Fold each of these.
Amino acid sequence: MNTHELHYETITRLTTAISQCREQEEVAMITAESVKSALNAKGCCVFLVNRETGKLDLMGSSGLSREYLEKGPTHFKQAIKEAKDAVPIAIYDVMDDPRIEYPEEAKKEGISSLLGVPIVSQNKIIGALRVYTAKPWEFSQDDVTVVQAVALICGMAMDICRMYKGYKTSIEILKNMRDSSSFNVNKWTPYEGVPTSVSQSICDY
């Protein structure tokens, strides 16, 4: 199987899998596992931007140790430098690049090279997809293109999950409102001593 066929198969399988997801964490895990497997990389991570903390929250990963994943916060402004203007960046040597926040931890983990691609939705950067390799790797244009395509699919799937969750929450709220306001409304009946015509006129109101 040649590279183009492999990439096509990866994107097809990924699209089919995440189309059935309803949670962003599921999308992230499937994406990370698919990219790692397709590129035979050491690992892959999917992050989403946390606008409140200014950090990237890890949503899913594959191939990396818990120790490395818990090395410290990944800051949005620093990480987004690798995805400025939605343009990916490949780092050949993680030990010799100022954009790497934790070079020593990366060395200990056995990471040599990194490819960072922005996850974009509705023309906004909502996260980042990172590919890590054990050996120095000069990522080819095909590698970058397929990871960009996967990141785009991931971004759309994340958006769909967010909307699905919003719709589900809205439906639950409406159901609770309906249940709490449910009561039996007794029909007006003529009062004793009150002419039927008068009580009827009251009912009309």
Amino acid sequence: MESTTSTKPKFKFNLTDGLAILIWAIVIFITWTFMHAADHYLELTPEALGKYYTVKCFLIAHITTGGGSIIFGFLQFNKRLRGYSWKLHRIIGFLYLLAVLVSSFSAVALAFTSAYKVNLPYAFSLQVWASVWISATFLAYYAALKKRFSLHKEWMIRSYLVTLAFVISGLVLKTPYVQSLGSFEDISPSLFWMGWSVPLFLYEVGRTSKMIFK
């Protein structure tokens, strides 16, 4: 009887993997820093939650699973990890999908309730952002089901860029220059649009440029 050997590739650590781990650590740190700012909500008191008190379940679900989607999403783009185990890639992808679904639908609930207590532009910008997030992630998942993996990758990138939108806008909002432009109510709607539309535009420019100038 002939012996059979496993064709599963061995995972050998190299400099590229070290860089990926470093970037992932930075992503985790940024995510933790951003989520840490919401620690006071965990007191679950009317004083701590303010306008979110009646929808606190949606708020906590949105924040916690949103952080998970940032971490799981980043892991999806590791080529070495995909090559090492497609099964692991699918598991992480499913966890990302689940995290996005919970966080985005919680965001929709917040956008149609407590967001109106800020103002209409704020609520509308969140409604559009959450809708784009859900749509992009669904298209990425559906493309994978149809085994259109190139299309799946493109929509996963778009989905992840929208996932990062809340962190991007949140970090920009903390800069002194932006804070000097006006109140949170005045400037936050524009930054929510910027958080996902500008990264998506830059991605499309880069993707198209590669096809035109290759």
Amino acid sequence: MSCRSTRPGSKARRATPATGFPTTTRATAARSTSTTVSERPSAHDPRPPRPPRTHMTITINGSPVELPGDPRVSLLDLLREHLHLFGAKKGCNQGACGACTVLVDGERVLSCLALAVQCEGREVTTIEGLAPQGDLHPLQKAFVEHDGFQCGYCTPGQICSAMGMAQELRQGVPSHVTADLCTERIALSHDELRERMSGNVCRCGAYNGIVAAISETFETFEDSEKEPA
């Protein structure tokens, strides 16, 4: 009988081998072996290796910008939350108010409904990029002169949308009220202007000033071509 005793409440350890480390139990060894085997890459794995992530960029107001790693980030959140370009506003966040309108390759886009990754390799222009030299764009000056804004929340989207509308006229894109669908030149008439700008909502009701500012800047198709881009 051994005279060695253990302390009350403690468990006796198994005899240690010559290495001096306590031996592991059979169950622990089995768990360790199974974990090691599962973590090893299988030579018969049919899945191809994951390719390394490539850097994707877009051009925003003339400067290249790397896209975020999360493909769920909207273009609006990229502009506001990542780049701190607060011109485009988050109004309804459902594409109904037009406050988030920006230009993508010259076309007006609702940035709250567009994913940032969809704009890879394309050029995005926000209200901050319309006059990069620090001066106001002629359309911005017209908004000031005709009192085309009150609170100013929808103004960046209104101006970007009007710029995209002028591009549509240059390309001869008809609207719902265009009478002649075969014409190459569409005049910016009273009905054309209001129909094409109907997707931009002004809760202050400054529509008369907005229409006057746009009419003065882009009165006809020929006049719009003379304005600087």
